């Protein structure tokens, strides 16, 4: 039998710290972790309910038909986003449980791919569904029939509001593209590593 | 939740509890966060046994689960701290020296853990599993790399650690 590496001997000499976790404590912590996720989800749902409530009320109250249409589109867009959040959240929880006992490379790759998919598709499921409603709503408010501002001022209000929102959306898109590229590089280097 | 899952977890926790502690120690220096990490490892292990299908040995499964929890923890904790020592940056690879002097030092173990924590994944996992006494094939099964690649990295990592121990003892 070969002599043990001195570093291995040193490693195995470690004295365990006092630690005890009963089965009940394991169950309790598992439930608590699950509740933490549910609380976070609840926060997202509450924010969505608030947005839906405000724009549903606006759709009922506003006399401008275009603004009404915009508000309805925002409500529909928000419902779609919440449904996607719910769907992706469920899929992530299931995948997390299944991946727990996977090898590190498979586990890590799955995490990277999940993050890549999230940042790559943010337009299609998070920002995109809100854009039509937002544009129509701003147009509805800027060009409301009851407004007294001159047409030039209305166009300016519409253009500036949409311009600011477009800059913010494009900024988010650029950050997500950069994040997606960085994640893809990590995935590629992991694939190269596992091929060796 | 099933009785089988509870029983399997209890048996694994009894058998590998100390190994989980060593893995947690290699991943987290802060005692409070280490305790949290260790608890997360136990919870993940218990949960994982609901999906354990026997396609790998229980030992491999336990180490995989613990390593994946540790990797997630490190990823969260150190996203802002990217100053890791890449194995590819290790250019000088001396033959391992007699480490008995270093072992005699009271801080040798803490230094070893600090060196391991400074390594990037998967080197950190590979050397930790090597120190746990697993061979290259078993480590390969846990980490997901070929045993040849693991053996090469172990050799380089041992040299890296030996070099640092030697440097410190000659200061």
Task: Describe the protein.
The complex is a heterodimer of chains A (196) and B (171). The model of chain A has no long low-confidence stretch (mean pLDDT 89). Chain A is elongated and about 90 Å long. Chain A has 196 residues and is mainly alpha-helical. Chain A has 7 helices and no strands. Helix content of chain B is 69%, strand content 0%. In chain B, α1 (3-27) runs antiparallel to α2 (31-48), α1 (3-27) crosses α3 (58-77) and α2 crosses α3. Classes of the chains: A mainly alpha (196), B mainly alpha (171). At the A-B interface, α1, α2, α3 and α4 of A face α1, α2, α3, α4 and α5 of B.
Mean pLDDT of chain B: 83
What proportion of the residues of chain B form beta strands (DSSP E)? under 5%
- Quantity of strands of chain A, as a count: 0
Task: Supply the number of helical segments of chain B.
Answer: 8
Portion of residues within helices of chain B: 55-70%
The overall average pLDDT of chain A, rounded, is: 89
Order of helices and strands of chain B: HHHHHHHH
Shape verdict of chain B: globular
Offer a few descriptive terms:
heterodimer, A: 196 residues, mainly alpha, B: 171 residues
Q: In terms of topology, how is this protein built?
A:
The complex is a heterodimer of chains A (196) and B (171).
Chain A: H1 6-12, H2 23-61, H3 65-99, H4 104-120, H5 122-127, H6 131-142, H7 151-195
Chain B: H1 3-27, H2 31-48, H3 58-77, H4 100-104, H5 108-117, H6 123-131, H7 136-143, H8 147-169
Helix pairs in contact in B: 1-2, 1-3, 2-3, 3-7, 6-7, 6-8, 7-8
Summarize this structure briefly.
The complex is a heterodimer of chains A (196) and B (171). Chain A contains 7 helices and no strands. Chain A has helices at residues 6-12, 23-61, 65-99, 104-120, 122-127, 131-142, 151-195.
């Amino acid at each position: 039998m070969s002599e043990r590496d001195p570093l291995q001997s040193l490693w195995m000499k470690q004295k365990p710290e006092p630690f005890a976790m009963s089965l009940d404590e394991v169950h309790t912590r598992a439930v608590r972790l699950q509740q933490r996720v549910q609380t976070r989800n609840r926060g997202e749902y509450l924010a969505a309910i608030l947005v839906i409530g405000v724009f549903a009320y606006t759709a009922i109250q506003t006399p401008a038909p275009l603004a009404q249409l915009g508000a309805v589109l925002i409500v529909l867009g928000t419902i779609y986003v919440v449904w996607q959040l719910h769907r992706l959240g469920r899929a992530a929880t299931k995948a997390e449980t299944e991946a727990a006992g996977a090898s590190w490379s498979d586990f890590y790759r799955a995490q990277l791919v999940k993050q890549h998919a999230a940042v790559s598709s943010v337009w299609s499921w998070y920002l995109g569904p809100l854009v039509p409603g937002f544009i129509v709503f701003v147009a509805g408010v800027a060009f409301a029939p009851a407004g007294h501002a001159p047409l030039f001022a209305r166009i300016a209000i519409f253009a500036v509001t949409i311009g600011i929102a477009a800059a913010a959306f494009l900024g988010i898109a650029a950050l997500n593209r950069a994040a997606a590229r960085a994640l893809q590089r990590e995935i590629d280097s992991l694939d190269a590593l596992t091929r060796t | 939740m099933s009785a089988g899952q509870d029983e399997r977890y209890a048996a694994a926790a009894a058998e590998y509890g100390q190994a989980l502690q060593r893995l947690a120690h290699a991943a987290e220096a802060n005692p409070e966060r280490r305790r949290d990490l260790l608890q997360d490892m136990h919870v993940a292990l218990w949960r994982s046994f609901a999906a354990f299908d026997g396609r790998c040995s229980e030992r491999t499964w336990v180490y995989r689960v613990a390593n994946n929890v540790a990797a997630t923890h490190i990823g969260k904790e150190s996203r802002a701290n990217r100053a890791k020592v890449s194995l590819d940056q290790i250019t000088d690879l001396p033959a391992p020296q007699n480490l008995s002097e270093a072992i005699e030092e009271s801080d040798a173990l803490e230094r070893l853990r600090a060196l391991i924590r400074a390594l990037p994944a998967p080197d950190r996992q590979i050397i930790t599993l090597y120190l746990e006494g697993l061979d290259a094939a078993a480590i390969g099964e846990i980490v997901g790399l070929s045993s040849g690649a693991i053996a090469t990295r172990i050799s380089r990592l041992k040299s890296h650690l030996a070099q640092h121990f030697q440097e410190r003892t000659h200061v």
